[in-house]
Amino acid sequence: MAANGAGYVVLVGSAAGRHGGTSLDGGLEYATYAASKGGLHTLVRWLARRAVKKNVLVNGVAPGMVQTPLFASVTLKPDGLPLGRFGQPDELAWPIALLCSPAASFISGAVLDVNGGAFVSA
User: Fold this and answer.
1) How far is CA 48 from CA 11, 31, 87, 109, in A?
2) Which residue from 85, 41, 48, 43 is spatially nearest to 64, judged by alpha carbons?
3) Domains present along the chain, CATH in parentheses
4) What is the bridge-based pairing of β-strands 111-114 and 7-12?
5) Is the C or the N end of the chain the one with fewer CB within 10 Å?
């Protein structure tokens, strides 16, 4: 990308990487998942600092619960979520597309929360 004069990179982390996760009954596996996503968010900022001078913009997204095939094994109910439902894959795809477009030409090193309002609920 730098050789071509510009580019966009978007890494996908997790809301768990932002707040350590919300599962009180999660075991060590969940802790390692949350820690790895937190590390990915740090990697976004590290890469962004090094790439921005080459006009390569590196950002990330931190999704909340999104219904994907991997999510099929989760037994959580969406009742406690602000929107009352889980996210859909296209609701994650659109913010990623935005960060890969000229509309994000002045954004670098950001991690965008795509969580249906989970951080603003009481």
Assistant:
1) 11, 26, 27, 5
2) 85
3) 7-114 (3.40.50.720)
4) unpaired
5) C
pLDDT digit string, tens, across residues 68-99: 887 777 777 777 788 989 999 999 999 999 99
33 in catalytic set: yes
Rounded Cα distance between 1 and 52, Å, is: 11
Q: How far apart are the first and last CA of the chain?
A: 42
Please work out, in degrees rounded to the nearest 5, the angle formed at the alpha carbon of residue 38 by the alpha carbons of 34 and 42: 170
User: What is residue 109's predicted lDDT score, i.e. its pLDDT?
Assistant: 98
Residues 55, 108 contacting (CB under 8 angstroms) = no
Selecting among 12, 31, 33, 98, the annotated active-site residue is 33
DSSP 52: G
Query: What is the residue whose two structure tokens read 């951080």?
Result: 119
Q: How far apart are CA 72 and CA 55, in angstroms?
A: 39
